[in-house]
Specification:
With 202 residues, this protein is mainly alpha-helical. It has helices at 10-18, 31-36, 47-53, 65-70, 75-86, 88-93, 102-112, 117-131, 185-200, and strands spanning 135-137, 143-145, 151-152, 158-159.
Length: 202
């Protein structure tokens, strides 16, 4: 059974991680340092073992290379890669674990830990809180943010991915027109002129 650290105050975890690029890099990320950031409640302290679990801190509390990378660019991808490494067992079962619902995550953690119901819910909540700040790189090299499938455009919006129409079979459309019977040749001549003008030439 693996030990998955968790926190009940997931808002604290998210804000503490988001503060990393905005604050200095300490020699050791200790409880005292956490308190200096404004997280003074004993319920905030699980932030430290979680940061150790995802490889942002060493066992002695010293910031790792991942911690330093997170202070730079593409921090959401750095975090996504760290999460996939830390929760490798979960991602081996669900390659899209970051998109799974609470029930699926609860069932996984219940079969891989000895935690009680309340702690299991907190463990799943901790994982989802981490994922909400991350992007995940798939095998094609594309990234998904919070389970989104659309790639962001340069203006921060979304590009809708459309299928390549070359992969689809051609479509033929047959149009049937009926002309009342007539012995006057002009009727048919006018009909074909109209057909050419309104359909064939367009």
């Amino acid at each position: 059974m693996k030990n998955y650290p968790y926190i009940t105050k997931t808002g604290t975890l998210k804000s503490a991680i988001e503060a990393i690029p905005k604050t200095g890099s300490p020699a050791k990320f200790t409880i005292k340092y956490l308190q200096s950031l404004g997280y003074k409640s004993p319920n905030d302290r699980p932030v430290i073992p979680i940061l150790k679990f995802i490889g942002f801190l060493g066992s002695d509390g010293a910031p790792t290379e991942n911690y330093k990378k997170y202070r730079g660019g593409q921090r959401d991808i750095v975090l996504g890669n760290a999460i996939k490494t830390a929760y490798a067992d979960l991602f081996s079962v669900y390659s899209d674990a970051y998109q799974k619902d609470d029930e699926s995550l609860y069932n996984f953690f219940s079969s891989h830990t000895t935690l009680g119901e309340k702690a299991l819910k907190a463990t799943a909540g901790t994982f989802k809180a981490l994922c909400s700040l991350a992007k995940f790189t798939n095998e094609a090299g594309d990234t998904n943010k919070n389970g989104a499938n659309d790639a962001p455009d340069r203006n921060g919006g979304s590009n809708i991915i459309t299928p390549n129409i070359k992969n689809y079979p051609p479509i033929n459309i047959n149009i049937e027109l009926q002309v009342p019977p007539s012995t006057d040749p002009a009727v048919y001549e006018n009909f074909f002129k109209a057909l050419k003008k309104h359909i064939l030439d367009n």
